[in-house]
Amino acid sequence: EVQLVESGGGWVQPGGSLRLSCVASGFTFSTSAMTWGRQTSAKGLEWVSVILSTGTTYYAESMKGRVTISRDNAKNTVYLQMNSLKPEDTAIYYCAKGAFSYDLRGQGTQVTVSS
């Protein structure tokens, strides 16, 4: 059974940083692409970043230059470092198995950016 558990969300002031983590189990993590996405009531679910098994990365324009995705295959963990956060980045952030996919995702972690 695929399991994905996100952590690291919370409240941060505009301009602040957060590092999200997602621990995966139930599949061969090292050969799987992983996606970070986010969901808001206004925009629905949108992808933020993708990392392939090769290490190739993709970033959505909305957060390019402010986020870095990385993975540690030894720990079955994918990370999302977020900097220069803005109020519009407030959302539930999910990690998901696969590239640009949300079918298999975790429960999410809430990120709130406000002063």
Please tell me about this protein's structure:
This protein is mainly β and 115 residues long. The protein has strands spanning 3-7, 10-12, 18-25, 34-40, 44-51, 57-59, 67-72, 77-82, 91-97, 109-113. Strand 4 (34-40) and strand 5 (44-51) form a beta hairpin. The termini are far apart. The mean pLDDT is 96.
Give me the count of strands.
10
Radius of gyration: 13 Å
| Average residue-wise pLDDT | 96
Order of strands in the sheet with the most strands?
Answer: 2-10-9-4-5-6
Q: Which terms summarize this structure?
A:
115 residues; mainly beta; six-stranded mixed beta sheet; four-stranded antiparallel beta sheet
Give a topology summary.
Blueprint (H helix, E strand, L loop, with lengths): L2 E5 L2 E3 L5 E8 L8 E7 L3 E8 L5 E3 L7 E6 L4 E6 L8 E7 L11 E5 L2
Parallel strand pairs: 2-10
Antiparallel strand pairs: 1-3, 3-8, 4-5, 4-9, 5-6, 7-8, 9-10
